């Protein structure tokens, strides 16, 4: 019998967790079993996932941000079907295909201060490109990054990662230095040494949803340019409307030299990464015909990724998802901010557009303090995990703890959500917070289970 994907899926349905345990990263199924996230999803549409029993889940994780236009958007699906049906000559390498040119043209129209685009296959590859380009274009070696930063996990990107737990054991990395987010004095002290190629920064940090203080990007950009260094804005997560502007840096009056894009450009289908730069940077890196392949990737610019990218950009524009992210995000943040007064465990609500962080903080009441301290002693982040699990188990809403050792949960729903999803989340979160403030009950029992697991890790 020939290959038939639907039959294969039907025949082996239900084996995903066992296969992962046997052949892939075994810690993933183990972790998912431990927190009761071990569902088998069989279908997804828009904001919602469906498991094999027909239960519906609201996806406020969006595949770490790839589903900007929602799951299985019909326009992106059609573009991919059309692309396959046209039997394009793809990945010829020695040709200049149409689709990458069109996608570059469309992306650059969103940020006319840039001139050229390099296409790779992921966020981390877009970042690697930015680091290489910045070093080559300036002739300098060091890249600065911010505390808490996350730019991907390949070795170059890891060198600009602000969390020790990711870096540990992978040394030596590139000779780079961390700057506390928002600290222009430390930045200038490093720049004075004269060997800094660039600062890489997320307009809103993905880990912890930390926001640089207002004016920091502008001040950093001025300083960098004064000392002949570049500003790289990593828009892998914040780009394409997530924060209520097409790019996150556009909230400030600032012109980066390089911008990285990935995640949502894929339409949630085909991995892609893009690095947008000023023209002079390309002129330096690709300075002669001899250097035409000096930075390149076999699968970059493949037709499937380009078609998905073009369709995703069209959907973002046609459905006005950037303004929807701003409007819906404002409504969701306002509804959640109202709860800060009501619930002492909720410390802060922050973010922009549909990138929202909920930070929990130490309670002052005697009823809640022992439970909080028990969780903190075992591992910082367990309270946030308890909330994520309660949102999932009781309300079928998928969220995540935003980084290791942090009491922050992050909301990153598709940019297509509306008032119905704002209400859904507000009511669910209110219910979970109300329960958490009882200081006992099922939620705290689960907290004790998490403590045992943390101790036995
Ligand atoms: C800001 C940022 N940069 C880079 C990356 C890495 O992207 P990828 O996982 O596609 O390599 C991520 C991923 O979460 C990210 O949030």
Task: Explain how this protein is built.
There is one protein chain. This protein is α/β, with parallel strands linked by helices and 457 residues long. Helices cover 43% and strands 15% of the residues. The protein has helices at 5-12, 16-23, 27-35, 62-65, 74-85, 98-109, 123-138, 155-158, 164-167, 184-191, 216-226, 279-285, 303-318, 321-342, 369-378, 382-395, 419-436, 442-455, and strands at residues 41-45, 48-51, 56-59, 116-120, 142-146, 177-179, 196-201, 230-234, 258-261, 273-277, 346-352, 355-360, 397-398, 400-401, 408-411. The strands form 3 sheets. A 7-stranded mixed beta sheet has the order 4-10-9-8-7-5-6, with helices on both faces. A hairpin with a 2-residue loop joins β1 (41-45) and β2. α2 (16-23) packs across α3 (27-35) and α7 (123-138) crosses α12 (279-285). The model has no long low-confidence stretch (mean pLDDT 96). Pyridoxal-5'-phosphate binds at residues 64, 122-124, 127, 150-152, 202, 206, 234, 236-237, 262.
How would you sum up this structure in a few lines?
By secondary structure, this protein is an alpha/beta fold. It contains 18 helices and 15 strands. The termini are far apart.
């Amino acid at each position: 019998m020939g290959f038939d994907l639907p039959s294969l899926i039907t025949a082996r349905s239900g084996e995903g967790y066992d296969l992962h345990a046997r052949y892939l990263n075994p810690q993933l199924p183990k972790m998912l079993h431990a927190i009761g996230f071990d569902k088998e999803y069989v279908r997804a549409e828009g904001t919602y996932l469906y498991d094999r029993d027909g239960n519906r889940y609201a996806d406020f994780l969006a595949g770490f941000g790839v589903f900007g236009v929602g799951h299985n958007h019909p326009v992106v699906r059609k573009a991919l079907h059309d692309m396959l049906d046209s039997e394009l000559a793809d990945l010829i390498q020695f040709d200049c295909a149409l689709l990458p040119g069109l996608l570059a043209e469309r992306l650059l129209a969103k940020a006319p201060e840039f001139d050229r685009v390099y296409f790779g296959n992921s966020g981390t590859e877009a970042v690697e490109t930015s680091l290489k380009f910045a070093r080559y274009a300036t002739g300098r070696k060091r890249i600065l990054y911010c505390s808490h930063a996350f730019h991907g996990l390949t070795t170059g990107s890891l060198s600009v990662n602000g969390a020790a737990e990711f870096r540990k054991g992978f040394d030596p990395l590139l000779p780079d230095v961390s700057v506390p987010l928002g600290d222009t004095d430390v930045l200038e002290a490093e720049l004075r040494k004269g060997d800094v190629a660039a600062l890489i920064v997320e307009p809103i940090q993905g880990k912890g949803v930390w926001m640089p203080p207002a004016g920091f990007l502008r001040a950093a950009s001025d300083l960098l340019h004064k000392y002949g260094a570049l500003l790289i804005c990593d828009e892998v997560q914040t780009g394409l409307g997530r924060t209520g502007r097409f790019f996150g840096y556009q909230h400030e009056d600032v012109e980066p030299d390089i911008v990285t894009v990935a995640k949502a450009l894929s339409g949630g289908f085909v991995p892609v990464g893009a690095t947008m730069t000023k023209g002079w940077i390309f002129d330096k890196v690709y300075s002669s015909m001899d250097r035409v392949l000096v930075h390149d990737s076999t699968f970059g610019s493949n037709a499937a990724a380009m078609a998905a990218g073009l369709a995703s950009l069209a959907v973002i524009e046609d459905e006005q998802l950037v303004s929807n992210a701003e409007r819906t995000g404002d409504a969701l943040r306002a509804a959640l901010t109202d709860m800060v007064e009501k619930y002492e465990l909720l410390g802060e609500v922050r973010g922009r557009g549909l990138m929202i962080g909920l930070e929990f903080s130490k309670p002052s009441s005697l009823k809640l303090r022992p439970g909080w301290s028990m969780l903190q002693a075992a591992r910082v982040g367990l309270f946030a995990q308890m909330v994520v699990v309660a949102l999932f188990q009781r309300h079928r809403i998928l969220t995540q703890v935003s980084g290791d050792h942090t009491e922050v949960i992050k909301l990153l729903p598709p940019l297509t959500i509306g008032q119905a999803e704002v209400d859904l989340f507000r009511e669910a979160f209110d219910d979970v917070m109300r329960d958490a403030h009882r200081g006992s009950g099922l939620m705290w029992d689960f907290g004790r289970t998490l403590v045992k697991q943390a101790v036995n890790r």
